[in-house]
Amino acid sequence: MPAAKRSLNILIVGAGLGGLASGLALQTDGHKVTIIDSTPEFAEAGAGIRVPPNSSRLLIRWGVDMEKMKKSTSNKYHFIRWQDGDTIVKVPFDNIVETHGAPYYLVHRADLHEGLLTAAYKAGVTVLNKKRVISYDFDAPSATTQDGEVFSADLVIGADGIKSIARPLLTGQPDIPRDTGDVAYRILIPGEKLLADPELAPLITDPCTTSWCGPEAHLVGYPIRNGEMYNIVVCATSHNETSDEVWVVKGDNRELCERFGKWEPRVQKLCALTGDFMKWRLCDLPILTRWVHDSGKVALLGDSCHPMLPYLAQGAAQAFEDAATLRQCLALDLDLKTALNKYESIRRPRASLVQEKTREHQYILHIEDGEEQKVRDETMRLNAVENPVFWGFDDRRKWLFSHDAEVLEKEGANWQVASRAEMKAH
After folding, report:
1. Is 343 inside a domain boundary?
2. How far apart, in whole angstroms, are the C-alpha atoms of residue 96 and residue 241?
3. Structural domain that includes position 22
4. What is the pLDDT of residues 198-228, one digit of tens each?
5. How far, rounded to the nearest angstrom, does the alpha carbon of residue 163 sit from its chain's CA centroid?
């Protein structure tokens, strides 16, 4: 892999998972990185997050201490029918390292954020909070905070999420994240509560990712922190819980039990064990036409340019891939603008495909019972292009999980393989 031929002063706006990962990747390649964020303190909220091989390989390489981090691993992906609890298909993940070259971890989002922050500090990244950016000068380039502080750099990276203020300024187009019509309930249950019930205990003792698929909703569950907690993400049709102004609201046990009262017994039991939780409006954006400003000094990364719905568990992974490819492009013997354009030309097709597939899976996993659902269940068992789950087909799973975003010459070949598979599928 190429090493940086120059040391740039880089400013990253946003200290989420993507911002921290890019700061760590670039600092360890010889650049001087400053990350600023509006948060009063660095404490990542949320619940569980899946770390597939295409991202775990990068974190390990960049010095994130995944060994020390409390985690579980997924030995399979188990799709289940919502009402009778029957298996649709089990996709084995027990050979994940041998097949894809890196582990598939199940972790708490806060633990992953802390691990990245610790590694960034250790590498020498400057990370500053209470710095809310209100304007940019893309030609300088610089960012100005609401306190009037100006941060100048050779390169500015907008990693400020789906509500990015950098994005519409960079694209020249006003944009509003589009409401997908779904909300996500993010729930954590102490593992000991599941272990006390013989019907639920295997969800902890036989760690895997379980997905119950039903009309207008699906539930994804998996253990985290060595089984200390069981994480559940419910993606379901919104009942107008959120608004354009308020994206996150509190949910309660009563409404959850009522909504899923006719689902299979294990789901009902999990709902009964649930306390209060948060519900998040699920939004995304149309595919962007550009990630790099004409000045050649500003670029977008992660959710600021390709926000992902959670249906493929690739949101953070694709942001980490952005960071890896940007790192390698900046190490090439190219001027800055050419390097950034190369980063965009490599990453935008891949990230856009994953983004589109996450939107398709919103429909695939929520099909009403009937003939279409029966066909879906049958084709989900096929190791073929007809499988509606994107990574349910070996070739597409290899394209997604085996990818190393720091090996630039492989990106094009992988993209061609995926394109051929997609054309055959349609």
Report:
1. yes
2. 38
3. 9-70+109-176+286-366+389-423
4. 999 999 999 999 999 999 999 999 999 999 9
5. 16
| Per-residue pLDDT, 4 | 53
| DSSP string over 129-191 | -S--EEEEETTTTEEEETT--EEE-SEEEE---TT-SHHHHHHSS---PEEEEEEEEEEEEEH
* Interior/surface letters 225-241, b for 16+ CB within 10 angstroms, e for the rest: bebebbbbbbbbebeeb
For residues 296 and 230, what is the distance between their CA atoms, to the nearest angstrom?
45
For residue 86, what are the CA distances in angstroms to 25, 220, 362, 378? 44, 15, 21, 13
> By percentage, how much of the chain surpasses pLDDT 70?
93
Structure tokens at 254: 């009563």
Omega before 349 within 30 of 0, i.e. cis:
no
Residue 16 main-chain phi, psi, to 5 deg: -80, -165
Q: With H, G, I as helix, E, B as strand and everything else as coil, classify residue 315.
A: helix
Residue 414 lies in a domain: yes
Cβ atoms of residues 5 and 333 within 8 Å: yes
Q: Please count the structural domains in the chain.
A: 1
pTM: 0.93
In-domain check, residue 22: yes
Torsion of CA 201, 207, 208, 209, to 10 degrees: 70
Residue with tokens 């084709």: 379
CATH code: domain of residue 143: 3.50.50.60
Q: Active-site residues: which are they?
A: 222
Closest CA to 267 of 311, 228, 241, 230: 230
What whole-number distance in Å separates Cα of residue 31 and Cα of residue 5? 10
- Strand locations in 266-369 (E): 277-284, 298-300
16 domain residue, yes or no: yes
Contact 323, 58 (CB under 8 A): yes
Structure tokens at 362: 């919103």
Which secondary structure element, helix H or strand E, spans residue 232, and what is its range?
Answer: strand 229-237
